[in-house]
Amino acid sequence: MSDTPIRIVVKVGSNVLTRPDGKPNVTNMSSLVDQIATLRSFGHEVILISSGAVACGRGAVQPLRQLDSVAQRQLFSSVGQIRLINLYNDLFASYGYVVGQVLTQKENFSSRSAYLNQRACMQTMLENGVIPIVNENDTASLTELMFTDNDELSGLIAAMMDADMLIILSNVDGIYTGSPADPDSRLIPKVATGRDLSEYVVAAKSGFGRGGMGTKCGIARKLSEEGVTVLIARGDRPNVLVDLIITPETTPHTEFEPRPEPISNIKRWIAHSSSFAKGVIRVNANAAKALRSDKAVSLLPVGVTSAEGEWEEGDIVNILSTTGEHIGVGRASLDSDETKAAIGKRGGKPVIHYDYLFLE
Predict the structure, then answer these.
(1) Contact criterion met (CB below 8 Å) for 17 and 51
(2) What is the pLDDT of residues 286-332, one digit of tens each?
(3) For residues 282 and 305, is the Cβ–Cβ distance under 8 A?
(4) Which residues are registered as beta bridge partners of 358?
(5) pTM of the entire structure?
(6) 350 CB contacts (<8 Å, ≥6 apart)?
(7) For residues 320 and 326, is the Cβ–Cβ distance under 8 A?
(8) Which DSSP string corresponds to 8-64?
(9) Long-range contacts of 139-145 (CB under 8 A, 24+ apart)
């Protein structure tokens, strides 16, 4: 890739970190730490998004009665997170590296102030040589506010921390033209920005994780459109992390190529905020066409046909066409009452300024 030190977010899934019986796969964890230590010796900054807490807990405790899915996650993660972080702490300590645990929740990304506070914390950790190890706080997260999986979390962290690269370590080498188990399937080495891979993605989930390759592709596409390089590779392949950086041309993986010009941090935040939207703004065909053009265009009141929901100035809103097609997401310049009062009018303040607008 490049000899210049970069900031890398590494996401590793449960199937890489745990054995089939749910106990930690210490061999794979040790190999992962060895490789991250090597990347650090090259001068790269590394943030680790680690699954495995729930799986580790599942192998450590047997519930005395039947539990619902939320209670199970809370129990297993409360036990498993300690086991997981203690293992990482011991393994990284052998190289002289200090790790820090970051447990986060989806709502921590919903407000700009909480987002910036979390970003500042992790930035301080990196500046002081601490390796952040990030996971969802399953003991406190509500079902409706949980991340789809740690792939979604890794995308949010990569965007928030202005990462140069996100590496997603899975149980396959990347995206195939069919099922990875099919001998006729071929690995797709590179994906151009904006390319649709839905025809190739198999909707299957892993044994312990919540997500599948469809989620990984969605996150990868969005990040590549923001200017982040995304690689998907097999996590238990020997020395895979180091090889992806040093000899990517001979290391099986799928690369999602980034757009040439990265977007601003606030646009990255907005790009991943659709699920936090307080309302919906529908626009007419002319406005939709203007927004999707190559020009830097703000959303003006004249293009708005309706506004649904209640929000304050600065809140996130989704932008839809009159037929319901999702066009983008933005930070509102007007509150909901002001927006409704301005519908269809010419002139005046933009409903959403271009600088705070992300288009799909």
Answers:
(1) yes
(2) 999 999 998 899 999 999 999 999 999 999 999 999 999 999 999 99
(3) yes
(4) 329
(5) 0.86
(6) 298, 299, 300, 301, 333
(7) yes
(8) EEEEE-HHHHB-TTSSB-HHHHHHHHHHHHHHHHTT-EEEEEE--HHHHHHTT---S
(9) 139/74, 139/77, 139/78, 139/81, 140/105, 141/105, 141/106, 142/70, 143/69, 143/70, 145/105, 145/106, 145/107
